[in-house]
Structure formats: C-alpha cells, structure tokens
Write a structure and sequence with these properties.
mainly alpha, two-stranded antiparallel ribbon, 8 helices
C-alpha cells in the first residue's frame, strides 16, 4: 500500500464510523446528526481522485465500505428500544448505497477532471449523493421492498404525512430522504472550499 494513500483511507474510515454512531441521534424532526458527517465521504473520495487518480480513490471507497460492513455487523448485535440498531434492510441499503454512490462519484469525477477545478467535484458529488439517498431510503424503508426482510415492520416509515411537514402527502421515509438529500446538496457546495485548499496543499511543489 502506498503510504501517501493512508491518510485518505483513515479519513474515510473515520467518517463512516462517525456517521454510523451519529445516525443514532436525532437532529430536529427529519434528520440525524449522521446526515452532517457522512457527506464528507465524497470530499475524501474527490480529493484522492484529483491528487492520486481513480485507482487510489477506489481503494479508499473499498476501505469505507469494509468499515461500514463492520459497523453494520456490530449494530445488528446491539439492541435498541425497538430492536437491533441495524436491521438487515438498513445494512443492505447502507452498503449498496455507499458502494454505488462512491464508485459513481469516482467515475463521474474522472470523466470531468479536465474541466474547471470545481466542476468535477461538484458534479460527481451531486450525482453520487442523489444515488446514495435514493438507494438507501428506498431499500431500507419502502413498503414495496418489504420482501427483503418480511419480519421487519417498517409501517412507521410508510405513514403518510405532508412532505417535510408542508408539501404533498408522501410516506414518511420520503420526507426523511428528501431532508437528507438537501443536506448533501448543501454540503456538496460548502465542501468545494476545503477541496480547493486540501488539493492545493497536496499538489504544491516541494520547496
């Protein structure tokens, strides 16, 4: 393993671990604290892609995926108020969403890497974030996918309510997903600042 890739691998593992912990704590009505830490996984992937290329970026993604799987396995053994902290549907949705979204991020970034500095990280993160939210919330909570884990009662997530408390009537999980997606979109823009700074420091010629 190239030593220069280790900080990226550790950063990704730390973000995934922190997000799995913070997701247990609510922030308002529609979000958890994990919604504010997880999007920075895309920042790590994009920095690695810009500085070292798509190959090392994919290695970082794999490290994050393995960390997520370990966290899910541990979560299935911890009992909360309503059962295991991590159900099979959540574990599958989380892993599938992470791997699909992050690898798509790498591919989109690499395709756009020759343009203006902000275009590749912004576009890749927006696409990846959208995929991540859509896959996770639909797999984990949609009534249409209840066959994945028939014994898991997700009726609470399919209670119909106004979207984010003010829009058209939709299942609760859709509001949770939209809120999560909006946070990801906001942080995709904010993360351009640290992306520019970190890449600048890593690519600056040695003096």
């Amino acid at each position: 393993m190239n030593r220069t890739h280790i900080p990226g691998i550790l950063a990704m593992a730390a973000i995934v671990l922190a997000s799995n912990i913070f997701v247990q704590f609510l922030f308002g009505q529609w979000l958890t604290w994990g919604a504010f830490t997880y999007p920075f996984a895309f920042l790590v992937t994009d920095v690695m892609n810009r500085v070292y290329g798509p190959g090392p970026a994919r290695k970082v993604v794999v490290a994050g995926f393995v960390t997520g799987v370990i966290c899910s396995l541990i979560g299935t053994q911890i009992m909360g108020e309503f059962g295991p902290l991590v159900t099979l549907r959540i574990a599958i949705g989380s892993g599938l969403a992470f791997l699909t979204a992050q690898l798509t991020d790498v591919a989109v970034f690499n395709r756009l890497r020759g343009g203006k500095w902000w275009r590749a990280p912004l576009a890749s993160t927006l696409v990846g974030s959208s995929l991540d939210t859509a896959i996770f919330f639909s797999v984990a909570f949609s009534a249409g996918l209840s066959f994945i884990e028939p014994a898991n009662d997700v009726s609470w997530a399919n209670e119909t309510l106004p979207l984010l408390g003010a829009g058209p009537t939709v299942p609760l999980w859709v509001s949770l997903g939209v809120a999560d997606w909006l946070v990801k979109l906001s942080l995709a823009i904010i993360a351009l600042v640290p992306f520019r700074i970190i890449v600048g420091k890593l690519t600056a010629p040695a003096t």
